[in-house]
Design goal:
This protein is mainly alpha-helical. It is 77% helix and 3% strand. The protein has one domain (5-10, 19-293).
């Protein structure tokens, strides 16, 4: 087992228990739309299963993480491509998936030569498999970069000496912010945060989400005690804010295409892309903070 695995696991179990109590109280008070309350347990079950799988894969090392993220990238880009096409733009899904794979393989390889080779292979695939018109190339490459680059950064982050803890904490901060925002929005949400993009997201829920991120950082801080507690909590709130921005940016893509969810693979959540959209901006921010302030 990686260092601090049990510390992180126990901390996450405590956080899940706190969120469960929060959800029970909200359901008991009958706050928020009935449909949203009814889906709470389905969402919670999917979220917990996703978390267990993510924790296990992160513990297995960078190669296991990279392979899992390639599968995630393929599914997410498939959903994203369908939504982009529904919005009237062309997106060549398979070449975008291959190009995203190149980014992740390069991060797994760690070596410049092998990474450059993987990138060259995927660029050749992109050129060879698609007769892209000029106005179709940008959505294809943008989809690959939007999904593939953040996931590749997560593999790179795993290579830090505290990589396992940092990856798990990043995922936990964003996830608990998301869950706390949703449940908090049901409980006390009044003012829409961005009604044109996400009608159900509220200012009050988002503020509670920041609180959830701060509590997550405080509980899991024991796994990385070299970091000052207040600075660690502050960084977690910044990452959580990036996660909310990532959620809203994905909502913009969906609203432009006139769809509610990217897919239906995950009960209560929508598609894979709906589950990872917050991470696609949060991961680069977390990686930037680690590379700037954390020793290797």
């Amino acid at each position: 087992m990686p260092p601090h695995a049990w510390t992180l696991a126990l901390g996450i179990i405590l956080l899940v228990a706190l969120e469960a109590v929060f959800a029970v109280v909200v359901k008991a008070l009958h706050r928020g739309p009935a449909t949203a309350r009814a889906s709470l347990w389905k969402r919670a079950a999917t979220w917990t299963a996703f978390g267990v799988i993510a924790f296990t894969v992160c513990a297995a090392g960078r190669y296991a993480l990279g392979c899992a993220l390639i599968a995630v990238a393929f599914a997410a880009i498939g959903e994203l491509g369908s939504v982009v096409r529904a919005g009237g733009r062309m997106c060549a899904t398979f070449p975008a998936q291959v190009l995203a794979t190149a980014f992740i393989v390069a991060a797994m390889a760690g070596g410049v030569a092998l990474g450059a080779f993987a990138l060259a292979v995927c660029l050749a695939t992109l050129i060879g498999l698609v007769r892209v018109r000029a106005n179709d190339a940008l959505p294809t490459v943008a989809a690959a970069a939007y999904v593939g680059l953040p996931l590749a950064l997560l593999v790179t982050l795993r290579e830090n000496s505290d990589g396992f803890a940092l990856v798990v904490i990043t995922l936990a901060v964003v996830s608990f912010c998301d869950v706390t925002s949703m449940i908090g929005g049901l409980a006390v949400g009044r003012r829409p945060l961005a009604p044109a993009l996400s009608p159900n997201k509220t200012v009050e829920g988002s503020l509670l989400g920041f609180g959830g991120a701060a509590v997550t950082a405080a509980v899991l801080h024991a796994a990385v005690t070299d970091a000052p507690l207040l600075g660690f909590i502050g960084a977690a709130v910044i990452v959580a804010a990036a996660g909310i921005a990532g959620d809203l940016s994905a909502s913009f893509v969906k609203r432009t295409a006139g769809v509610k969810d990217f897919g239906s693979a995950l009960p209560g959540h929508g598609g894979i892309m709906d589950r990872i959209d917050s991470l696609l901006l949060a991961i680069p921010v977390a990686a930037a903070l680690v590379f700037a302030f954390w020793p290797n």
